[in-house]
Specification:
This is 16S rRNA (Guanine(966)-N(2))-methyltransferase RsmD. One of its GO terms (molecular function) is methyltransferase activity. InterPro entries: DNA_methylase_N6_adenine_CS (IPR002052), RNA_MeTrfase_RsmD (IPR004398), SAM-dependent_MTases_sf (IPR029063). Keywords: Methyltransferase, Transferase. Pfam families: Cons_hypoth95. This protein is α/β, with parallel strands linked by helices and about 190 residues long. It has a single domain (about 1-15, about 25-180), classed as Rossmann fold, CATH 3.40.50.150. The chain has 5 helices and 9 strands. The strands form 2 sheets. It has a 7-stranded mixed beta sheet with strand order 5-4-3-6-7-9-8, covered by helices on one side. The protein has a two-stranded antiparallel ribbon with strand order 1-2. Helix 2 packs parallel to helix 3. The termini are far apart. Mean pLDDT is about 90; it is low at about 165.
Length: about 190
């Protein structure tokens, strides 16, 4: 059973597809969201949840005060669960996109998102390509979190993600590792 941990929808149960997804554990979500709440907060943020599965990560952000949340997953079954779960959470600005993450990023609004929560399948082998596609859709000082398996190679963050050399500490929860970085748009010509 998966529940929303905090915020206006705290304690509400959401459904998870039985196949094709690997939900982020409650412990990992709680740790991640506690860390994000302390450093950034969620109030008024524009959140993108890629490889969303049930939508648990994005809906947690919605429950905690995000202004707008976009849930993206290619699976039709996942999209049905996300739609159900969005109704359970009751946030008016949750948008569901049934398409591949790369396709969505090609079409997404530019310089829009303050926070990206990406949980690709552990077998996904183009994390660096995904990060490169994120840059145009990120607002300045956006936080990007990518969940990977602990023994996966760490992402190669482009210069825009570490302009001050301040890469955030990675967090591990069981077999999951959360890699985080802050994006800073280069304003110099």
């Amino acid at each position: 059973m998966t529940r929303i941990i905090a915020g206006q929808a705290r304690g509400r149960t959401i459904t998870v597809p039985e196949e094709g997804t690997r939900p982020t554990s409650d412990r990992a979500r709680e740790g991640l969201f506690s860390s994000l709440a302390v450093r950034w907060g969620f109030e008024g943020s524009y959140v993108l949840d890629l490889f969303a599965g049930s939508g648990a990560l994005g809906l947690e952000a919605a429950s905690r005060g995000a202004e707008e949340v976009h849930l993206v997953d290619a699976s039709e079954l996942a999209a049905k669960h996300m739609a159900h779960n969005a109704k359970v959470v009751g946030h008016p600005k949750v948008h569901i996109h049934q398409m591949k993450a790369g396709t969505y990023l090609d079409r997404a609004p530019r310089e829009h998102f303050d926070m990206v929560l990406a949980d690709p399948p552990y077998g996904f082998d183009d994390v660096d390509g995904l990060i490169a596609k994120l840059a145009p859709v990120l607002a300045d000082r956006a936080i990007v979190v990518i969940e990977r398996q602990v023994d996966s190679p760490e992402p190669n963050w482009p210069e825009e993600f570490t302009p001050t050399g301040q890469k955030l500490k990675k967090r591990t929860y069981g077999i999951a590792r959360m890699d985080m970085a802050v994006f800073e748009r280069n304003t110099h010509d």
